[in-house]
TrEMBL record:
Keywords: Apoptosis, Cell membrane, Membrane, Transmembrane, Transmembrane helix. Belongs to the XK family. The lineage of its organism: Eukaryota, Metazoa, Chordata, Craniata, Vertebrata. It comes from the Eukaryota. This is XK-related protein. It is found in: Cell membrane; Membrane.
Length: 426
């Protein structure tokens, strides 16, 4: 029993120089994306485009507020865990036990940045002193989730806005191209980073191939890109209806998340923040939030988005300016649907040939390998040496998403003789 748990938890606690590189690149990507946002906002303001300036600043502020709220919620949850301070050491996130300073940083919208700095600091500590590996891994898992949230709260909407402005003006400025490039880079990096963070919960992390990561990256890019472009095209002909379109779909998605009874956060207010954020993510891309029959949920989602995208494209085609859009209209009306279907093809290919699965063992064994306490972050008792318990620091926030993404339960006989449910996570 102990050897099984040691093998699983040893995998989770490994921290390599690649993890440190990813942390540094995460900071660079965050600063470049933030700098490009400020540049674009300044350009809008200097040209007198106060409306677009307000929209862009609004997206930046909304994204920052959401990310800081998640960061602060998690910081509060972690501090309430017995022994967390001892396990994380003196270099805990955001000045250790100085709660007032941590709160001030979040109010100043700097909490996310200082989490990056803490992760890099802890990474150097592991590299030079060979200690604190578990806590370093714990930090990068939280950052991966926060980057995912920041990407779909800011980068994806901003990318839609930039394409819309280009279509409306029928010309592209250098600052807009830079902003689009920064947003695409941010989304692409998030996809790779999030995929890598999920894979770290697998026992065969070291065996992860570049082919799997590439296919995962491609199907996400090929599904998100045409979705963003379609929304921008629709907004270019009916700009006021895009807000109504978003609010209606977001409300429906939030209700769907609520219906799935998610338990990602440790408080009711935090859980509703999570559900609202997932509703925003689903406006652009599928994101699995619970276990069970996810193949059916994924099929429903993609069918709905395909139908919605088709309606948006047809509406744009009917209301577009035929002279202004003559050079690209036919190419877009053909390319965007084909790109989306190609993304679905790559997604099916990934799940058929590249997607590893965690096989749920019989109930008695699953209590050893996979069951987790109700808290979102947990310590697991691995062994006792010299009368002193040894703990494993496990980030259950990301572990729950990894389980939803990778777990595959084949039909098996329960104690009452009934067949178990087959779970597939497409």
């Amino acid at each position: 029993m102990s050897s099984v748990m040691e093998d699983a938890t040893d995998t989770l606690s490994k921290y390599s120089w690649i993890d440190l590189v990813f942390s540094v690149m995460g900071v660079c990507t965050f600063l470049i994306d933030w700098g490009s946002d400020v540049w674009v906002a300044t350009e809008f303001y200097c040209r007198g485009d106060f409306f677009w300036f307000g929209v862009l600043v609004g997206l930046m502020v909304l994204s920052s507020l959401v990310v800081q709220m998640f960061s602060w919620f998690w910081l509060k949850y972690d501090r309430e865990l017995p022994g967390f301070g001892a396990q994380s050491g003196a270099g805990t996130v955001l000045f250790g036990d100085k709660v007032n300073i941590s709160c001030l940083l979040h109010l100043l919208q700097l909490g996310f940045l200082f989490r990056h700095i803490s992760a890099i600091r802890q990474g150097f500590r592991v590299w030079w002193r060979k200690e604190g590996s578990e806590y370093a891994v714990y930090l990068i898992h939280d950052l991966s989730m926060l980057r995912l949230i920041e990407t779909f709260c800011e980068s994806a909407p901003q990318l839609t806005l930039m394409i819309y402005v280009m279509l409306s003006n029928n010309k592209a400025k250098t600052v807009q191209l830079v902003s689009i490039a920064a947003s695409v880079t941010s989304i692409a990096w998030m996809v790779v980073d999030y995929h890598r963070s999920l894979r770290s919960f697998l026992p065969d992390k070291a065996k992860q191939g570049w082919g799997s990561a590439l296919i995962y990256f491609l199907w996400n890019l090929l599904l998100i890109a045409p979705r963003v472009a379609t929304l921008a095209l629709f907004a270019s002909v009916l700009p006021w209806f895009i807000a109504l379109h978003f609010l209606v779909l977001w409300f429906v998605f939030v209700l769907w998340v609520w219906q799935q009874k998610t338990e990602f956060m440790d408080s009711t207010s935090g859980e509703w923040l999570y559900r609202a954020t997932v509703g925003l993510i689903w406006y652009f891309s599928w994101f699995n939030v619970s276990d069970g029959r996810t193949r059916a949920r994924s099929f429903i989602y993609h069918s709905f988005i395909t139908l919605d995208g088709g309606i948006l494209l047809v509406t744009w085609w009917l209301y577009r300016d035929p002279f202004q859009s003559e050079s690209y209209a036919l190419a877009l009306i053909i390319t965007l649907p084909l790109t989306y279907f190609l993304g679905l093809f790559f997604k099916a290919m990934y799940y058929c040939y590249f997607h590893p699965k965690l096989w749920r063992p019989p109930v008695r064994e699953s209590r050893i390998a996979f069951d987790m306490p109700d808290t979102q972050v947990s310590f697991r008792d691995i062994s006792t040496q010299d009368g002193v318990p040894s703990f494993q620091l496990l980030n259950k926030r990301m572990a729950s998403h990894a389980t939803n993404f990778y777990l595959d339960q084949r039909a098996n006989r329960n104690n009452d003789g009934t067949n178990g449910e087959e779970v597939s996570h497409l």
